[in-house]
Design goal:
Elements (H helix, E strand, L loop, with lengths): L44 E5 L27 H13 L4 E5 L9 H8 L7 E6 L4 H11 L3 E5 L5 H8 L4 H14 L3 E8 L8 H11 L2 E6 L17 H9 L5 E2 L9 E4 L6 E5 L12 E4 L4 E3 L8 E2 L1 H6 L5 H10 L22 H4 L2
Parallel strand pairs: 1-2, 1-10, 2-3, 3-4, 4-5, 5-6, 6-9
Antiparallel strand pairs: 7-8, 8-9, 10-11, 11-12
Length: 360
């Protein structure tokens, strides 16, 4: 039987209104000359999409009838590796590989193995929908992937199929179990919160995570791309989720950080961490340490803005000279905005690209 107590003090609290901003990453180990934006934030983390394709069609991520990029407009795996090497030379030490679904990219394991050997890269992590984990989890671990995030918005097979349009939850759940058995340092579930869709399942999803000794993060839905309807009606805040979960579990705030945007709470007696990613209700831009590169080589300094620098033309125009690429990366620090504002965009997104195009 799970505890039904919710503590409420700053030393280990979990109350509505608590700070959901993740702890600021320690940058003291990074030498002068590494990436620093005009607001003093040091960039140590890149999210690199290696494909815009996916075997699911999650309705908050993409349209049902997607038009995917032709191969000639997508970064080659060798170009992906060159981008990682350039960022590593500038002090980046964490790389997250995303998609689309990264494991549908042919020879993705080769790229992961190469990135794992790049000097300076200490954390190689992956975000996946889980559909290919049953097949690839042991090989991913052998390639040097340390942690895996798996998207899981529901435990109900019918609802899973409705959300993903094509997915088989049984295959994903087997993949999660395979990943746990493979021995990654952490496996985490990512749940996009949607009112009236999956909010009644949050306690069950936490129990599922606890039973397997994995983490879980609840993510506020972001207004990226025109999905044919507004998102206000389905928006569910981190404060509400914390209050809901507090009826079922003892949650104690933690100052742990995974180097990303999640703020974590601990459940006493369990190894599971419960995280919240709160781009609307508790903007975490002050602690932002990351940039994103799309599968077509667009470098976005902020997920919530449209400004980007095109890296692919530089890579192909200067295949034997990294300097133009390095200068472009340094230059993007000057256009990284102080913050995004998703709250005013829930029904009319200003960022028209889908999440699958930017990288999950």
């Amino acid at each position: 039987m799970h505890n039904e107590t919710l503590h409420s003090n700053d030393s280990g609290s979990a109350t509505p209104g608590s700070a959901f901003v993740p702890p600021r990453a320690d940058t003291s180990r990074h030498a002068a000359g590494t990436l620093l934006d005009k607001y003093g934030r040091r960039i140590t983390y890149i999210r690199l999409s290696i494909t815009d394709r996916c075997d699911f069609r999650c309705h908050y991520c993409m349209s049902e009838d997607m038009t995917f990029l032709p191969r000639s407009e997508v970064l080659s795996l060798e170009e992906c590796l060159e981008i990682v090497r350039a960022f590593a030379e500038l002090g980046v030490h964490k790389v997250r590989i995303t998609g689309g679904e990264p494991l549908v990219r042919k020879n993705a394991l080769w790229l992961l193995g190469q990135i794992g050997q790049v000097p300076g890269i200490r954390e190689l992590v992956l975000t996946t929908n889980g559909s290919q984990l049953e097949r690839f989890a042991p090989d991913l671990r052998a390639a040097g992937v340390k942690r895996i995030n798996v998207s899981l918005d529901t435990l109900d097979p019918l609802r899973f199929h409705e959300i993903t349009r094509t997915g088989d939850i049984a295959k994903v759940l087997r993949g999660i179990d395979t990943a746990v058995a493979a021995g990654f340092s952490r496996v985490k579930l990512n749940t996009v919160m949607m009112r009236g869709v999956n909010d009644h399942e949050f306690p069950d999803l936490v129990r599922y995570a606890m039973d397997r000794g994995v983490d879980i993060s609840f993510i506020e839905e972001m207004p990226l791309g025109d999905i044919g309807h507004g998102r206000t009606a389905t928006y569910f805040s981190s404060d509400e989720a914390l209050e809901l979960l507090g009826r079922h579990f003892t949650l104690e705030a933690s100052d742990e950080s995974s180097g990303g945007p999640a703020r974590y709470w601990r459940i006493p007696g369990s190894d599971t961490r419960v995280g919240f990613i709160s781009p609307h209700s508790h903007n975490f831009c002050d602690t932002c340490n990351r940039v994103r590169i799309t599968a077509k080589g667009e470098l976005y300094p902020c997920l919530g803005h449209n400004d980007a620098v095109q890296l692919l033309p530089l890579l192909r125009a200067h295949p034997d000279d990294r300097q133009p690429l390095t200068e472009a990366i340094r230059g993007v620090m000057g256009i990284k905005p102080k913050a995004h504002d998703f709250t005013t965009q829930m029904d009319a997104p200003r960022v028209v690209r889908f999440m699958s195009m930017t990288g999950g």
